[in-house]
Amino acid sequence: MSQQKLAIVTGGNKGIGFAIVQGLCKKFQGIVYLTSRDEKLGKEAVDKLKELGLNPRFHQLNIDDPKSVETFKNYVKTNYGGVDILINNAGIAFKGASTEPFGVQAEVTIKTNYYGTLRMSEAFLPLLKNGAQLIQMSSSAGHLFKVPSPELRSKLSSDQLTIENLSLLMEEFIRSAKSGNNVELGWGSSAYSISKVGVSALARIQQRMVDALYPDKNISVNSCHPGYVSTDMSSHKGPLTIEEGAVSALYLALAPHGLKGKYIWSDCAVIEWTAPNAPY
Ligand SMILES: NC(=O)c1ccc[n+]([C@@H]2O[C@H](COP(=O)([O-])OP(=O)(O)OC[C@H]3O[C@@H](n4cnc5c(N)ncnc54)[C@H](OP(=O)(O)O)[C@@H]3O)[C@@H](O)[C@H]2O)c1
Question: Could you give the CA distance from residue 113 to residue 190 in angstroms, rounded to a whole number?
């Protein structure tokens, strides 16, 4: 079994994930896995980085597919024993012009952004090594105050919130989206936003969980907003390059920052997730 340190990035074949892999290959003293759901696209991305003299490895990984996640987890466990850095970057967003019914958009978006991130975290949590960094890719849209209802905000930010109850809240949102009363019930009108609020809430809960489960391991779980980045997701409207979009995730992965259960901005500033002061 390899004794080297290990970093894993989901959705690494393009966009911000690709730049995160590139940054890790340059700065992290260990093995870096670029993973992607499409094997051909992932291998092409690896080849691109090899042309630049970098040396990432590849594994197929679809975060929506329990079998794919299980296969990769077993592969990592057998070959490396554990993980030092896991960056859950993979995500989706419907375009504003999408004609899919809102209920479908809500279900599909929560499925990948929230449940996919949860599935990856739950699979890899037991493999996190001493001092490991778990980074959940959120968004400015994932700030708590994107949820209009004070009552929902209070539930989502409660120190007593469990993953089970957070998932129930995500289900409640999907039901409201399907019934067409999501705005009336205080969820607002963005499925992407609720999915990313879920991701940031998840990071806070998971920090409490690892502290309780593995008190001696010093594991950090944080979420970040990468900035508005020029990628396929933003239809290349974002002003930041993918390298600039990778800065906050790389900071959480590499710097001795001491942050636990926090939400940070693209400039690496800690933003109070439960206060209405995000710099949007
Ligand atoms: N761009 C922005 O301005 C911005 C702002 C805030 C937050 N973010 C977040 O940053 C992250 C990266 O976004 P991006 O802008 O780089 O988007 P992107 O260019 O569309 O890349 C998204 C990546 O996620 C992958 N992915 C999607 N579903 C997946 C699944 N089920 N399993 C595995 N991989 C999957 C995609 O794979 P395929 O190529 O196979 O589709 C792709 O590699 C996302 O979580 C996004 O929400 C982006």
Answer: 13
Give me the number of domains the chain comprises: 1
Q: Is 90 in the pocket of ligand 1 (CB under 6 A)?
A: yes
Tens of pLDDT, residue by residue over 111-168, are 999 999 999 999 999 999 999 999 999 999 999 999 999 999 999 999 999 999 999 9
Distance CA 118, CA 203 (A): 10
Is 253 in a helix, a strand, or coil? helix
* Nearest-angstrom CA–CA distance, 8 and 93: 22
| CB contact at 8 A, 181 and 149 | no
Q: Token match 């990313």: residue?
A: 196
Does the beta carbon of 266 lie inside 6 Å of ligand 1? no
Listed in order, strand segments (DSSP E) in 21-138 are 31-36, 57-60, 83-88, 128-137
CATH code of 206's domain: 3.40.50.720
Residue 187 lies in a domain: no
What is the Cα–Cα distance from 100 to 120, expressed in whole angstroms? 27
68, exposed or middle or buried, with CB in 10 Å at 0-12, 13-18, 19+?
A: middle
CA-CA distance, 236 to 228, in Å (whole number)? 9
Residue nearest to atom 19 of ligand 1 (CA): 15
Residue 220 beta carbon below 6 angstroms from any ligand 1 atom: no
Q: Is residue 106 domain-resident?
A: no
